[in-house]
Amino acid sequence: MDSSQELKPLRDAVHSALVTVTRSVNSLSNEDLQFQRTVHPSVAARLDQNTERLLQLARGVLRSASEFTAQRKPQLEDVDDVEIQWKGLVDVIDCLLEKSDTCLDEYTGLVKRKDAPTSELGRELKRSKSTTSKLDWSMKRANILKPQNAFEKKIENFESGPWKPLLTTKPHARVPLETSLETFVDEDGRPQYKHPYEQEITTMQYPKEVYRPCEPIQYLPMENTKAIWVDTYDGVLEMLEELKQATEIAVDLEHHDFRTYTGLLSLMQISTREKDWIVDTLVPWRHKLEVLNEVLADPKIVKVLHGAFMDIIWLQRDLGLYIVGLFDTFYASDTLGYAGKSLAFLLKKFADFDADKKYQLADWRIRPLPEEMFYYARSDTHFLLYIYDKLRNELAEFATQGNPDGNPIDRVIQKSKEVSLQRYEHPICDPETGVGNRGWYNTLIKSPTLYNGEQFAVYKAVHKWRDDVARHEDESPFFIMTQQVLSDIARIMPTDMKALWSLLESNARGLKPRLGELFEVIQEARARGATGPTMLQFFRESASGPPRASLGVKQVATAAVQDSEPLSIEELKCDRSQLWGDVPLNSSLDGTSKNRPITEQEMIPLYTFDFGAVKEELPETTQPLPKSTAKEDTVAVHIPEDEGFTLKTGRKRKASDINVESTPEAEATSDVEMGSESSSVEDQTESPDVDEEEEEEEEVGGDAEAAKAVRKQAKKTARKEFNRAQHRAEQLVANGDIEGAKEFKAHARRALRAAKKAQRQQQQQTSRPAASSAAEEQQPFDYSKASSVLHAPRAMNGDGGGKHGKRGKAVPFDPYAKKSGDAPQGARKMNYEKAGRTATFTK
User: Where are the compositionally biased (Basic residues) regions (predicted)?
Assistant: First the structure.
């Protein structure tokens, strides 16, 4: 019988039962159950029994569904929990319904049934998204027994002297081991051991096949091959014999650093063209893995890694392994200019494989290793040799195109050699100066918080205490205490143990046995800090002292501590623009200008620019000036900062000034005449714009140019007098003499009006004879000398319509007349409002 026909009766029966239950539930919801429970005690007992039975059934369904769907099981203690944990219930039921729908489709033949993975190939099949859930927190930070406790060679976190390489033998050596293990003094004055394979790496010649294009060797399908799990020493020796026959191998590592002080190399993946190995590096005898140097240090075998900077360090630190003949595919992709340089990008580009990087931060100490993590670890090296072939061919083709920077493959090899020469050093933490990769200096220099003497001393003391505890317990300092908790303790400085306990987070609750010890450290540091330097003083002293090569933040510290002191001009000058790069900032600064370079006295720092120190140099003139009492004192201009400014409507103009061309002096004069007497001096001291465009007037007759020159000189004289009056008035305002400033300003304007009147009279005397003679000659109309239509002079009319008011006076332009559009206009002004003020804005 067809499967779909077998399913139909079952589906109909289930559907009928669900419809019946739904109808019963709807009918019950229409009843007042609370009233029935109160009136009939027997009904209340039955309802409680059914409620408990339904909750028990729901718990069973959720328990089974959560195990099947890998979802977190909601806890239903009573009816209220259904509403409280409604989101979790919906997630579990939705996932269950999706899986049911998939099973029904497979059963009816709508989709092809997926074969269950066999025990042999179970590790090789990549889990689909429907069966692969997100990593549980226990998988990310598994609370397991520390594997380092079972190591035959214990980890020493309290170093004494420089870190010595773990090598006992040196395969493929050009320099003997005893000779290569020499010490030297680094740039910080500390003794260090040299790289044991430094001579071999620097003088190595890569095989000729690396430089030649080749036909890429296709990788084997992962479904048809299997990876070998290596967790015995015999398995390591068998793998080693096969690796010796290869000409290139791919290597990758997985690391863990949350539950250990220095870190743990947890897994090593090695692949050839035919096989993949997953090596357990957490076995108690892991120091015996040093035998892999017979392959990793062999210059005839190319080792392909991606982003091997930290891999080189981890191999040295934990296993005493060194790589000679590294080819880093990261630098190859960088040289070729790829848009992405990650391993996931290369896997997608060349192998069309989507790497699931959510396992990258998983806890790789978990044993046995879950299938998803095993598959992810294998995929990192399974395709890497094929990617190496593709990149090598592109680099060879790139070299044949006449690259001006040299052979690209040589650049990749040089970068790979530099990575191979990295050395591991002990983590350093100087408790007083904060120097070292585990110190506090680089953290505090970026912090916006400034601690006083006591807080700074507490921060340093707690930081040292945390580092000592982490070394002793072999834990990460951040597992012992997060940076936020450390900052809170230094900032608050708890006065009792209860307050200190409240500052610790959940992962720091393991410090409860050491709570008294920590509190004592805080109190002692607080007493020392009462007479000690503050954080700002410390950074000021460190910035002024000799530079620290290991910190690289001296300039940052200098800028951070000198915010309260004036900077010199030399500190403000920059030789290279952060925006434009090496483009010269100024031709006079880079020496290319033909003129002389500017001196330091001519440089004015913008942040200290004082407008009050600027004095205007007024030119001398032979034109007689109008009589005025204005003094020729030049005063500093004071510009107020962060004050409001006011926009005003236009002022009315006197009828006698309508036919006269508009000048800045006339505008200022009319402002004084028509302005309110109650307005302040600041509202009446608006400087005229000397650069404002003026209309050209028609000149007729032989004296036109002379008249024009006279008017120009008169205007210049008026502007000069007005500017001097402005400066004098502002000086009086600065001295507090407001009334004197008003009188002085009014007197200056009267002088300006007198000068303007004399100018107008002279203009009329010059233009009238010329106009009459022109009319008699009746010359043709010259359009080139016609007055502007767009800027036509305002006409005198008394109709009061249009844009002119009564008696021919023009209505001033109001920029806020239509600011509200078609909205209703506001009420008319009250008596106490000042004329001309419309809106005030604040910067």
Answer: 709-718, 747-759
- If asked whether residues 84 and 189 sit together in one domain, one would say no
User: Would residue 768 count as lying in a domain?
Assistant: no
Average pLDDT estimate for 460-478? 94
- Residue 679: the pLDDT is 39
For residue 230, give the 3-state DSSP assignment: strand
Are 463 and 406 members of one domain? no
Question: In sequence order, what are the residues at sequence separation of 6 or more whose Cβ sits closer than 8 angstroms to the Cβ of residue 475?
Answer: 259, 260, 261, 469
Do both 340 and 445 map to the same domain?
no
Domains held by the chain: number: 3
Same domain assignment for residues 187 and 87: no
Lowest mean pLDDT among 102-116, 157-171, 431-445: 102-116
| DSSP class of 607 | G
Rounded to whole angstroms, how far apart are CA atoms 701 and 765?
Answer: 12
Here the tokens at position 49 are: 């029994």
- Strand-strand pairing, 191-193 and 227-230: unpaired
Terminal CA-CA length for the chain: 85
b/e map 571-609, b = 16+ CB within 10 Å: eeeeeeeeeeeeeeeeeeeeeeeeeeeeeeeeeeeeeee
Q: Which long-range contacts (CB under 8 A, 24 or more apart) does 461-469 make?
A: 461/521, 461/522, 461/524, 461/525, 462/486, 462/489, 462/490, 462/518, 462/521, 462/522, 462/525, 463/429, 463/431, 464/429, 464/431, 465/517, 465/518, 465/521, 467/429, 467/431, 467/438, 469/511, 469/514
Residue 604, in any domain of the structure: no
Domain boundary among 91, 108, 125: 108
Q: Which tokens is 294 given?
A: 């017979």
Q: Mean pLDDT for the chain?
A: 74
CATH number at residue 546: 1.10.150.80
414 and 510: one domain?
no
- Choice among 348-352, 480-484, 542-546, 776-780 with the minimum mean pLDDT: 776-780
Q: 230 with 335, same domain?
A: yes
Average pLDDT, integer, range 594-623: 46
Rounded to whole angstroms, how far apart are CA atoms 92 and 115? 25
Domain assignment of residue 193, given as a range: 165-420
Chain segment 663-713, per-residue pLDDT in tens: 444 444 444 343 333 334 344 444 444 344 444 444 444 456 766 777 777
DSSP SS3 for 91: helix
Residue 128 predicted with pLDDT over 50: no
Quote the pLDDT of residue 233: 96
Give the pLDDT confidence of 643-657 residue by residue, as tens digits. 454 545 444 444 444
User: 460 with 538, same domain?
Assistant: yes
Residue 819 has a CB neighbour count (10 Å cut-off) of 10
Q: Which tokens in the block code for residue 233?
A: 């020493």
Which tokens hold the place of 679?
């307005």
Q: How confident is the model at residue 552 (pLDDT cuts 50, 70, 90)?
A: very low
Nearest to 449 by CA among 479, 487, 481: 487
Edge-to-edge, what's the strand order for the sheet holding 302-305? 227-230, 276-280, 264-271, 248-256, 302-305, 326-328
- Tell me the mean pLDDT in the region 511-538: 92
Mean pLDDT along residues 347-369: 87
CA 147 – CA 463 distance, rounded (Å): 27
Helices (H), 156-283: 177-180, 198-202, 233-243
Among residues 71, 89, 108, which one ends one of the domains? 108
**Does any domain span residue 12?**
no
- Residue 551: pLDDT band (50, 70, 90) is very low
**Closest residue by Cα to residue 194 from 400, 422, 10:** 422
CATH code for the domain in which residue 263 is found: 3.30.420.10
Residue 350 inside a domain? The answer is yes
Asked if 564 and 556 touch (Cβ cutoff 8 Å), the reply is no
Mean pLDDT throughout 599-617? 45
